[in-house]
Design a protein that fits this description.
By secondary structure, the protein is mostly helical. It has two domains: about 50 residues; about 240 residues, no CATH class. It has 13 helices and four strands. Strands 2-1-3-4 form a four-stranded antiparallel sheet. A hairpin with a 5-residue loop joins β1 and β2. α6 packs across α7. The chain is globular, with a radius of gyration of 22 Å.
Length: about 325
Amino acid sequence: MPTLFRIRGGDLAEYGPATTDQILEWIRAGKADHLTPIRAEDSATWTRLEWIPDFAALLPPPHPQGRLLPGNPARAPLPTIEELRARPIQFHVLDAFADGFKLVLRRPVLLAGSFLLAGLIALALIALSFIPYAVIATLPTALIVAGPLWGGLGLLALRAWRGEAVRIREVFNGFRLPLGAHLRTAGGFVVSTVLALLPGIGLIATGIDAGSQAQNLTFTSAVLILAGALLTLGLGLVPLALWGFAPTLMLERGLRPREAFRLSRRITSLRPFRSLLFATGCAILLGVGLLLGGVGLLFTVPWVLGARARAHDEFFGPRHAPSA
């Protein structure tokens, strides 16, 4: 009996069961490509079409400009990596936040609603962690879920910035990628953040040790602790500045985690000071939202998402004008 398959389309709906010949017909018709999620009818594990030997040899080569989002064939093509590195970057931090604010005013229900949906999932995991021993399962689950949700939010805001038709449920688009990709992405952020924090933490520890030996808070120990705190805050933002666009790039261009991290670093490092300043602004907005009792996040997170969409388009996209 021939093997039957199911694929997941750009609308996140499942199609099938389909035979091998039907899958090949969809490939020839342009309805499936190397990134299309696919699974055998008798399996619950999703993989990519390009990773199945029976189809890999028959697939056309990946688009050199990255994968164009289904349902939006008329949008401008994505620049190639070579074009991204060669073109001038006129990125202005204040303009990004101003345009992000305008996007919030134009699409408040979409941006706030998508964040609220993702936030409710996070709150549910936090509530479950208070059950005895449940934290053993909820903590790894939260780490795994956070990446896809943040990537989905980023892609949703980016598409809204480009004037494309977007629905709140597309916040779950991040889950189209294999679990291994999410784990590698989360691991990359954790490792890079820990390494960035080590110098500042070392200064703080040295200052505390100097104060304890003198049995008093001396001027030297106070300076070391203050310098360590400032260094920790500054360097802690470096991973966000250099690699913060990687989750959205994975979804937008169909890149593997290593490729997305490398592309994000190569382009943002062309404007390192502005990238770090932008990351600082995002962190300040998120901090203000938390200080307002968490409710402020319903406004500041959409604002950050809008600003990041504007910045993403400047760094990696075809540079759309804001949609009316």
